[in-house]
Amino acid sequence: MIERLEAGAWAGADALGPAALLASIRSARSAEDAAAAEQLDLAARWADLHPPESIHTAASFTVAGCEHEEPIAGPGTPLVAEFCVAELGTVLGITSVSAKKLIGHALELRHRLPRLWAQVHAGRVPAWRARAVAEVTIHSTPALTREAAAFVDSQVAAVAGRIGPAQLDRLVAETIKRFDLAGQDPAADPEDGYLHVDPRHVTIHDQDVHFAGTVRLEAEVDLADGLDLHQALAHRAATLKALGSVESLDARRAKALGDLARTQTALDLFQHGHTNRSDDGQALPVAREVVLHAHVDATLSGDTTIFGPTGRLEEGQRLLLIDQLKGWCGDSRTTITVKPVIDLNVEKAAPGYAIPDRIREHVILRDRTCVFPWCDRPARGCDVDHVTEYDHHADAAGRPQPGPTHTDNLAALCRFHHRLKTHSAWQYRMVAPGVFEWTSPHGHRYRRDRTGTIALDPPDPGPPGIPSPRR
C-alpha cells in the first residue's frame, strides 16, 4: 500500500510537467517566505504584550567571558520581559535562545530597519536575509545609533536586501566611521585616519561535534601571530612525519595545533622515549588537561573487561567510537579517571537540602541536558533543582517534608530555566524517573524526556484578537 501511494505521488508530480512543477516549487517558496514574514510580525506583537517591569527584568544576551549583557535589539527598540521568550520558544519548538533571537530580529527590523521591514512584508526580501542584516546591526561594535542604523537600512533596502556578509561588514564599518561612532571607543585613535574595529577572535564550535570526533574552529589574529602560527604548524607537521606519521598534511597540521595546546607533547614523547619521566628522573606534569565525560558499555568475562565498540560523549552529546577514545588517551600523558558505575534504576536520597555529589551525578547522567522543553544545555553545567520546593521550616514545624532531596524530586535545569521555574508561572512535575511534564503560563503542556520534547494537547487559543491573560 505504501509503495502504491508513493508511486502515485511520484506519478502526480511527473504529470505536472517541468514548467508546472517549477511553478509549484516557486509557489511553495513564496508561501514559506510569507509565513516567515508573518512569524516576524507575530513575534514583535508578542513582545508588545510583554514589557518588562524594570530594566533588570528585560531579556538580554549573556556575553561569554564578560560581566555585562547585550540587549536583544539595538538602541531605540522596546525592552521585552525576560521570561516571555520561553513560552514563544516552546510553541515554536525551538530553544529559548532562538526565540530570543527571533524577537530581537523582529524588533530591530520594525523599529530601526523599517525600509527592510516593509520589503519583507511586501514579499521583495525573504525574512532570512533581513534577519541576517538585523543580527549584524544589533551586535555591532561599537553599537549603532538609530541614525546609523537608518543609514544601513537605506543602503540595504536600495539593493532589496541582496548583500553578502562581507559587503554588510564593510557597510557597517563605513557607517561607524561616517557617524564617528569609533570616536566613542577609548581604544580608538582619532588621528590615525582608520576605523578602529578589533576583529580578533578565536571561536571553537564545541557544540557542533562531527561524527568523526572533530570540532570546527575559526580565528582572526594579528598578521605576525598568524605567520608565526603557520610556521609552527608547518614545523610540527614535519616533525610528526619524521616520527613516522603517515597521515595527510592537513591531518598532521590539525594534530600539531593540538600539540601546541598541550605544550609540545609530541616532541616531549619523542625526546623521553614515550615515558612520563624526564632525563633526571623527575615526573613530568600532565600535559593534557581537557576533561571529557565518556560513557561506554562494558561486560566482564572472568577477569577481563570487554568494552563495546561505541559509547556516548557528553561533550556535544555525540556518538563515541571506542577507537577514538583509545587514540585520545594514548597519544600523550593523559590522566584517566574511571568512576564507579551508577545504577540509574536505584533511587537515592539524602537528608536536608544540600545535594551530595553522588546524587548530583545520578541526576546528570539520567537527564543528560536541561529538562526544560527543547533546551539542549548539557546537564553537567546545570543547576540541580528540587521539582517540588524544599520546605526549610518543615522539620521545625513538625510537618512532613514536601520537597525531599531525592532523585525522584530532582531535575537538571540551566540557570535561565531554573530562574524561570522559580519566578514565573511555569510549572512542572516528574511523572516517571527522567520524564517531566511542563505547563506554561497560558496552559500549553509539554513532555520532556531523554529522547526529546513532545507537545501535549495544546489549549484552545480562544477567539481571535483576544490575547490570553497574563499571569
Describe the structure.
By secondary structure, the chain is of the alpha+beta class. It folds into 3 domains: 23-188, no CATH class; 204-271, no CATH class; 349-456, no CATH class. It contains 14 helices and 15 strands. The chain has helices spanning 2-48, 84-92, 96-112, 114-121, 127-138, 146-158, 165-178, 223-242, 249-261, 265-271, 322-330, 357-367, 394-397, 415-423, and strands at 60-62, 69-71, 201-205, 216-220, 294-301, 304-313, 318-321, 349-350, 383-386, 405-406, 410-413, 427-432, 435-439, 445-449, 452-456. The strands form 6 sheets. A 4-stranded antiparallel β-sheet has the order 12-13-14-15, with no helix packed on it. The chain has a 3-stranded antiparallel β-sheet with strand order 5-6-7. Strands 1-2 form a two-stranded antiparallel ribbon. Helix 3 (96-112) packs across helix 5, helix 5 (127-138) packs across helix 7 and helix 8 packs across helix 9. It is globular. The protein starts with a helix and ends in a 15-residue tail after the last strand.
